[in-house]
Every structure is written in C-alpha cells, then in structure tokens.
Amino acid sequence: QVQLVESGGCLAQPGGSLRLSCAASGFTFSSYALSWARQAPVKGLVWVSGIYIDGSDTYYADSVNGRFTISRDNAKNTLYLQMNSLKPEDTALYYCAKEGGVAGLYDYWGQGTQVTVSS
Questions:
Q1: Across the strands, what pairs with 45?
Q2: Would you write out the chain's pLDDT as a tens digit for each of its 119 residues?
C-alpha cells in the first residue's frame, strides 16, 4: 500500500536550517506530483510547496518563497524540503502529500514530522 514517511523534524534556532525527507513506497513515485503542507498549533493545514513529477517545476507559498527549496530524487523515491532562515512562525507539523489524478487534490498523506523553531 501507499506509504509516505516524513523525517528530519526537530528543534531549530531562528535563522537556522533543516532538511525534511519523505520516503515513499507503494506507488510509482516518478509519476506523481508531490507537495509539502504544514499545520501550526491551533491553525489549519496550509500548503507550503509542490514539485512536478520530474522536478522541472516547483511552487512555493509566499511565506516560504526564497527560504525553502523542494526537491525530489526519483531514483530513491524520496521527497525533500530544505528549510533555511527559519522563523518561529515556521513551527508546525509538516506533512508530505501525494497528488492524485487531479492537480491540486491529494490522495495520500504522511504522518507528519514536527518542526519547532525557537531560541
């Protein structure tokens, strides 16, 4: 079955960097667009970044544009999110998601990895 397993979340200082990973299995990884989304405490789920099947196109929310970089390794079935210049407002549970047959609709999600930005 489809599995998405995030890792790499931890406590980081403001201005620091983290790299999140999402290991995928159970589907043809290179055939689907993928995204990262996050949910801060007592807030809703917010889309953060997306990447096309071959990595040729990437998309970012305004709040992270210029600080975060999404990438994928189709040979390793792994999605990444490089997070630089972290801010306290980046604190959230980060999820990776697999796009289904319709652009912008996601049919599978990981369990999330916690990122906390605090001094």
A1: 39
A2: 999 999 999 999 999 999 999 999 999 999 999 999 999 988 899 999 999 999 999 999 999 999 999 999 999 999 999 999 999 999 999 999 999 877 788 999 999 999 999 99
> Would you say how long the chain is, in residues?
119
Dihedral sign, CA of 47, 80, 92, 113? positive
Q: Rounded to 5 degrees, what are φ and ψ at 90?
A: -80, -5
CB neighbours (10 Å) of residue 34? 23
Q: What is the CA radius of gyration of the chain?
A: 13
Under 8 Å between Cβ of 58 and 96 = no
